[in-house]
Write a structure and sequence with these properties.
Elements: H1 3-16, E1 24-33, E2 40-43, E3 47-58, E4 69-74, E5 80-84, E6 92-94, E7 97-99, E8 117-124, E9 126-131, E10 138-147
Length: about 150
């Protein structure tokens, strides 16, 4: 192959090489509807990325009891994404973060006392457990995941 042909091939390959893709934000909507005992367990579709935010919105007609508790985990790994107690009557927003550790398990800090936190990873379905929600009450949960 001649040098000019090889150069043209390399340049042509470079020009059609895909650019890096930035992370995308996905929102998983979870409908909450407790049973007669006030409990519910529900799962999202599998997702992969980092949980950026979680929003709870009570139903306008039959909202969850103010003493409702939420436990949200990665169903595959069991990593805790959020535990919230006594949700209250209004909408709530959370931005879950986990403490960062070194490879030896020591907490990473800014100055020796203030811990460094980062978004929590998820690699599968997200499991949402509602407890003490009141009989047949409803709400919605929006889980924002950066990834896919």
């Amino acid at each position: 192959m001649r040098r000019s042909s090889l150069l043209a091939l390399l340049i042509g390959s470079y020009l059609v090489w895909p650019a890096s893709v930035s992370a995308q934000m996905g929102v998983h909507t979870v409908s909450l509807a407790t049973d007669a005992s006030g409990d519910q367990t529900v799962y999202t579709a599998p997702t992969f990325g980092r949980v950026v935010a979680i929003r709870y919105v009570p139903d306008a007609t039959d909202p969850m009891d103010t003493t409702s508790d939420l436990t949200i985990t990665d169903n595959a790994t069991g990593i805790q994404l959020l535990t919230a107690t006594n949700l209250g009557a209004g909408a709530r927003d959370w931005f879950p973060r986990a403490a960062m550790l070194t490879t030896t398990g020591v907490a990473i800090t800014y100055d020796g006392t203030r811990e460094v936190h980062d978004e929590v990873p998820v690699a599968g379905a997200i499991k949402v457990v509602v407890a003490q929600g009141g009989a047949s009450n409803e709400g919605a949960l929006y889980v924002y995941v950066e990834g896919r």
